[in-house]
Amino acid sequence: MIKETPEYLKVKNKLLFIDGMDYKENIFLSNADYHASDLILSEQIKTESDFQSFNNSLYELFPRDINQSINSRSEFIRSTKLENESLRLSDVILPSLSLLGEEKDATLLDIDLSKMETADQFSDCFVELGSLLYSKNPLSLNSKLEQDKIYAFAYGSGSKYVIVLINISDETANAQISNINFEGFTELSYDAQGNLLNKRQLQKNTMIFSVLPGYVTILYGEENGK
Fold first, then answer.
1. How is residue 105 annotated by DSSP?
2. pTM
3. Three-state DSSP class for 183?
4. Which of 96, 109, 133, 179 could form a disulfide with 142 if both were Cys (CB 3.0 to 4.6 A apart)?
5. How many CB atoms are located within 10 Å of the residue 206 CB?
6. Res. 12: pLDDT tops 80
7. Cβ(165)–Cβ(204) under 8 Å?
């Protein structure tokens, strides 16, 4: 019906249609540009196996489009609900960034502003990341990580970069990043409860970063101050 109106012809190239339907057979049936799903987080992610299991279940959550290639349509996570008070910041940020820019285009977090809940504790870091990642594309890192403990995500545009380090384990772990000069970058350190513990500007190029259990470190800036 919308496509038949004169107004649609004027704006059709400016509109994106998002399908929010739940499909029983998990088969995408509309011609919308995107699909939106709900995500429920209830388990901690503490190992690489936990993370792989989460990614597999997340991928199965997305409806299949049998008329297009497997990577032809990205997904929006319109709602992320937290159903376990023991969830750490790492358990929220890691799923939010997983597949972002590949299979997902956006992830939203439910926040009840009328009362303090688990989601509210993590909102500052979540919102900060949303702002920093705007208009950035996924990048690759030359890094040495304790792979079963720390996950690193990199995004950039031109000489501007955002690096996110997430420690999913119960132990302090280190990450070494060698292909970015971090001098002048801002470092944000969030604890497992989502509190911003430290914000500082790096005065010299640092390659090794230590991240405590459940913590998230965000590094952002413009390389070489350009």
1. E
2. 0.81
3. coil
4. 179
5. 15
6. no
7. no
Tell me the one-letter amino acid at 113: L
| Class of the domain covering 137-225 | mainly beta
pLDDT score at 70: 47
- Confidence band of 214 (pLDDT split at 50, 70, 90): very high
Q: What's the token pair of residue 54?
A: 């989460």
Strand partners, 19: 35
User: Residue 183 in contact with residue 201, Cβ under 8 Å?
Assistant: no
3-state secondary structure of 96: helix
**Residues 160 and 222 sit within 8 Å (Cβ to Cβ):** yes
Residue ranges, comma separated, of all CATH 2.60.40.1180 domains in the chain are 137-225
Checking if the pLDDT of 218 tops 90, the result is yes
To 10 degrees, the CA torsion angle through 175, 177, 178, 183?
-120
> How many angstroms separate the Cα of 217 from the Cα of each of 27, 33, 90, 159?
38, 34, 10, 20
DSSP label at 27?
Answer: B
pLDDT, tens only, 55-106? 888 777 777 777 665 445 567 788 788 888 899 999 999 988 886 756 555 6
Q: Are 159 and 181 in contact (CB under 8 A)?
A: no
